Amino acid sequence: MMYNFQSEKYKTMLMCDNDGIPLLLPNIYLHSLSKNRQVYKLTWVDGSGKRRIKDAELNKETLSKKNITDCFYELRKFLLWLESYSVNSTSISISTHHNLPEEILNYYINNVLILERNTSEKMVEKAVSGLTYYYNFLAFNGLTNIKEICVKNDNKSIARENTKRRNVIKYLSPRMRAELYANARNLRVECTLRAGGECGLRTQENMGLLLNDFKVGGKSYSGMKSFFKEIDVETKLNERLGKQKQEFKYWLQGKYSKGRRNGVGGLSRWIYIPRDVMLRFKLYYETERPKCGEDSLFITDPISGVVHGIREYQGTRDFKDTRALVIDKQQQGFLPDYLHTLEEDHKYHILRHSYGTDKFHDAVEEDGLELENVTHLSRPYLLVAELLGHETRGKDAPTTTRKYIRSVKEKLDQEKSYLECANG
Questions:
Q1: Which of 24, 238, 335, 376 could make an S-S bridge to 401, C-beta 3.0–4.6 Å?
Q2: What CATH number was assigned to the domain covering residues 174-423?
Q3: Which part of the chain has CATH 1.10.443?
Q4: Is the pLDDT score of 274 beyond 70?
């Protein structure tokens, strides 16, 4: 297993093996890259200045700080893959990686990244650049010969299609959502993310989770503190009865939801909070939430200097901060291959849409329907519309149904990838 660390002395990221022994050539390259901010780019020329394939030069090119960081991540991801790939090989290893044949490098780009991992065109370009710069550095210093690393013509369209699929289909698997929750910087952030991914709430709807019981139209509804008390009482009785409530039904008022055309708020609806999520809400309330008179469950961080109920944009901010941490792990190769890529353009709303996709898929399965035969009048669509507070009439209804059908296909693709990795 490889490890990386930030060198205070050399002010750069460095790599070592499982025994703490530095990886010499990668570290020399990374130190040079950090110090000089320059790489070598191949140019084909002849003596007259005309470009010819028969002669080549390696010319220096200056990189931005961000591109230097990308080079580190791409090299690390490649070496991690190579470490695993070389387990059953007698001729390929990390120690001889500088003299790898072009075929292995291009196998990684074309077969592993594009065909197996469904990597987007932009990320493939980063991988090609990162590896090319590294091997050009080695070639310039006489440690290997020049390698031609590229995307095969047949795979260019596949990489573009990977990009298109990522941009159009929005779905995060339960495993990727769990990764986001695990990387939340505190309980409040974890809870707002869970509210989207496990309860289908919009970011502004997190404001509608109230502590105290309330009345709407003369009818009383339970607040969070009532549910917390119910759990406490149930815990005491559970020793004798052995039963636990697995879901809590909460009335979300439309004034906290997405406004309709008349500007008077969205649809009020029941939301169903799983027991494990409610337990996290309870833990947040009892251990982290500041003591104050606010009725909102979720409160701003005390370090902000002003304590009040969160605003409608808080979920967006929480998702953005957590997304950056997960993408960083992703780039360093810390996440398993079966987790499809989290992208910069993924927003908080993808949590809610992923929740809806799971419910849509489950309802289609329960009704024994063929996915392509589901319409905006079918029970699965009407059920999910009710859970998410969607309008079920009008021109947008069929469009929304098609979005969920595409997302279910992405869900099934991700499940297939997971099973293949688990069994492979």
A1: 376
A2: 1.10.443
A3: 174-423
A4: yes
